[in-house]
C-alpha cells in the first residue's frame, strides 16, 4: 500500500479508480490519476453532485438567468445550484432563485429529476449533476442578476426557444408550465 491506495486495487481497475482509506479507516472508491511509481494522487471531485432549480412563472412568463461562469457560461437556464449539506432540495431551490435573481417564489411541486453530464472534448468527465427541478409562482421582486448570473429576466413561454438554453431546459419549462396551470391553489 502507498499513499492510502491499495496497489492491487489500483492495478485491477485500470489505473483509474482505487480504494482509499480515509482518516477514520473507512474504505471508499475514489477517482485517481496516478502513475504506478508516483507517490501523489490527483483526486477529481466526487460525482454526481446534487443540485436544485425551479421554473418560476409570472403572467405567462418564466424566470430565466444567464450563466455567468463555468462550462455553461452564456447559456440561459432556470435559476438553481448546489444543495448545501443539511438543506432540503426545495429550500436550496428557493435560496438559489433569490441569490441568482432577487426573486421570491412559492414552489408548488416537483417537475422532475434532471441529469446533466458534461464532458471535455477528450471525453473526460467535466461535471455530473442530478438536479431536482421544481415549479412555482412568483411572489415578489424584480429580476436582478446576482451570484452566478450575468442576467435575469422573465421570458414569455412562447419566446424561450429564442434564447440559447441549457440542454433540456425548454422541455422542463413546458412540463412545469402545464403543472403550474393545473395548480390553482
Please give a structural write-up.
The chain is of the alpha+beta class and 185 residues long. The protein has 2 domains: 7-43, no CATH class; 49-182, Nucleoside Triphosphate Pyrophosphohydrolase (Alpha-Beta Complex). Helix content is 18%, strand content 41%. The protein is built from 3 helices and 10 strands. It has helices at 7-12, 89-101, 169-182, and strands at residues 17-21, 27-33, 42-43, 49-58, 61-67, 76-77, 80-82, 104-119, 125-140, 149-156. Strands 4, 5, 6, 7, 8, 9 and 10 form a 7-stranded mixed β-sheet that branches. It has a 3-stranded antiparallel β-sheet with strand order 1-2-3. Mean pLDDT is 80; it is low at 1-43.
Q: Let me know the number of strands.
A: 10
CATH class of the largest domain: Alpha Beta
Q: Which structural class best describes the helix and strand composition?
A: alpha+beta
Give me the number of helical elements: 3
- Major sheet details: 7 strands, mixed
Give the mean pLDDT. 80
CATH superfamily of the largest domain: Nucleoside Triphosphate Pyrophosphohydrolase
Amino acid at each position: 500500500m502507498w499513499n492510502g491506495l491499495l496497489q492491487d486495487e489500483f492495478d485491477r481497475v485500470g489505473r483509474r479508480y482505487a480504494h482509499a482509506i480515509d482518516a477514520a479507516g473507512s474504505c471508499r472508491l475514489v477517482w485517481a490519476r496516478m502513475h504506478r511509481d508516483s507517490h501523489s494522487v490527483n483526486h477529481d471531485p466526487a460525482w454526481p453532485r446534487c443540485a436544485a432549480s425551479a421554473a418560476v412563472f409570472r403572467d405567462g412568463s418564466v424566470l430565466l438567468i444567464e450563466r455567468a461562469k463555468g462550462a455553461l457560461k452564456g447559456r440561459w437556464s432556470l435559476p438553481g445550484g448546489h444543495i448545501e449539506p443539511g438543506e432540503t432540495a426545495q429550500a436550496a431551490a428557493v435560496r438559489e432563485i433569490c441569490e441568482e435573481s432577487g426573486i421570491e417564489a412559492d414552489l408548488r411541486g416537483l417537475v422532475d429529476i434532471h441529469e446533466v453530464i458534461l464532458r471535455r472534448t477528450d471525453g473526460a468527465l467535466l461535471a455530473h449533476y442530478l438536479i431536482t427541478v421544481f415549479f412555482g409562482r412568483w411572489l415578489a421582486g424584480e429580476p436582478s442578476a446576482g451570484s452566478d448570473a450575468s442576467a435575469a429576466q422573465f421570458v414569455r413561454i412562447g419566446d424561450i426557444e429564442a434564447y440559447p438554453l441549457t440542454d433540456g431546459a425548454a422541455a422542463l419549462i413546458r412540463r412545469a408550465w402545464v403543472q403550474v396551470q393545473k395548480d390553482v391553489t
